[in-house]
Each structure stands twice: as structure tokens, then as C-alpha cells.
Amino acid sequence: MEYISLGKTGLMVSRTAFGALPLQRIVDYNESSALIRAAYEGGINFFDTAHSYTDSEEKLGFVIEDIRNDIVIATKSGARNAADLRTDLETSLRNLQTDFIDLYQIHNPSFIPMPGGSDGLYDALLEFKKEGKIRFFGITNHSRQLAFQAVETGLYDTIQYPFSYLADNQDVELVKICADKTMGFIAMKALAGGLITNISAAFAWIRQFEEVIPIWGIQRMVELEDFLDLEQNPVLLDESIKLAIEKDRKSLCGNFCRGCGYCLPCPANIPINNANRMSQLLRRSPTAQWLTPEWQDLMGRIKNCTKCGLCAKRCPYGLKPYETLPKHLKDYRSFLR
To answer: CA torsion, points 267, 273, 278, 282, in degrees to nearest 10?
Structure first.
């Protein structure tokens, strides 16, 4: 396992990091504990979770007591004022069964908190750090504009931003600026929300960027084993890998849904985050999981769309799901025949 400094924090973190969002989909705490311990024993020491990931924090806290000082924990809060941020922090500390959090992140805000702001968020972060409850703090975002703004302020230790081989030149430029400023860059959605299925290619491509730490979402032991194997036997970014990446870029780049879910909730109860990329999911993952009676009912809700436009207003990528959902429903029905 390779370890690098997370920006200028001095925290030495594994270049393969554990994205703990999928832990909430594991029912059995013993199963999630075994997965976390296997990751640690395989050399992974950086675990990223969030207050909003239901019981993900609790599952981490359940198993890390004897290794707490050997790992780096990052979590997040979606609070938009200082009082709620403190409440979230105290909850996260209890969930994680720890006295401090290594990296505390403001979760996808619609603005960049600044010193002296009326929201009080940035000043609260400084106070938490003085109290010893957090060591460093960062920000996460899906908006490129806000990500650049956060980096330019120089006020945050890290930025967490979507980054995969579907990234464009502006995203790569953001990485370079972070490197120049010695700001930690944490890559979320390195598999583009599940649309990238060539894990070896994704791993090889992102390894070009020496300062980038991808947080791979891991739910199953076989997934963990794949990443640990790639650490032991790295795949080179050779011509065959480049050709595979170019093929994916041609079919996926542009205005595609990343499945982030910020469009939700939908007044018509449409699961937009998956429904609006169903055509790709059906062609890039086992179809059986999407053709169940439950999913047939969920996709059928697209007919109830009122085109209220709330999803478009919330989408950090500027998409208009209400315009494309009918196409995905039509494609979905073709698979049912």
C-alpha cells in the first residue's frame, strides 16, 4: 500500500481510500465489521463517511476502537448554520465512538462558508479545531464553480469533488491547482456513480495524479479484494487501457446523470438518481436487479412527472431530468419485452 500526505495536513493516508457510504446497505453489523477490518489489515487507513449516510458512522464506530489512532477518519455535515453544525459534530463523535475527527467536511453547500459569514460555519470550524474535536477541515461539492472558488480562498485543507476518467480538462485543471496550493484533493465518484465498470482502467487512470486520493465506495468483500489486488499488482495505463477509456468517454461523456441524488426528493416519488441513468445501468450492469417488480413500479412513476422543474433547480450538473426521464422509461420498457 502506498501512503501520501493529504495536502498540507501531514496526515499520511493510503492512496486507496474506503468510501463508507455503501456500509448503510449492509444489514449485519458483523458483516460490515469484517469488511472494515479486512480493509485495515490490507493497508487502508483512510475512511470517509458522512452524518447523512444513515448508520455508516455507527458501523465504523462499532469496530475501530483498538485501531482508532492508526486510521484517518473523515466525515461530513450538511448543516447550514453554526448551531446545527455543532449538533452534527457531537452526533458524529458519538456515532464514531471517538473524541476527535481527523477531517471534518462541509457537505455540498450551495455557497462557500467564509470567516465572519452570517451562517457562522467557518468560524465554528475554527472553534471546533481549537477545542480539539477536529484536526482539519474541508469542503465537498459537485459544483465546479464552487469547487474552484473554495480552492482559491485557501481557507480549506481539502476539497472533495467528482473525478474519474470521464473528467474534462477543467476538472484536471482543478487537480493541478490543488497540487500547486498543496491542498488535499479527495476524488468522489471515481467510478462515475457506477457507470464505469472497468475498475482496472479507473484505477490506472487516476493513479496518474499523484496527489489525488480516490474514495472507492466498497460494500462487498470481493470489491475490497479487487482494489487491494490492484494495489499489489498495479495496472499500467497502456494503450489497451487507453482505448477502453476512450470508448467509455465516447459513450458516457457529456450530460449524463452521475446518480448523486441531489435532485431528490421528487414530489412524484420518482427515484430520479437511478431512473435518469437507467439506460446506461441496463447496459453496464446485471439487468436482473433493475427489472424486478419493485423497479417496474418505480420506473412507472415517471408517468406521474409534472415537470415542476425542482430536479433541474437542484442538479449540480445543470441537467433537466424531467426532459430525459421519458426516454429512459421507453428504453426500460424495451428490456421488459
So the answer is: -140
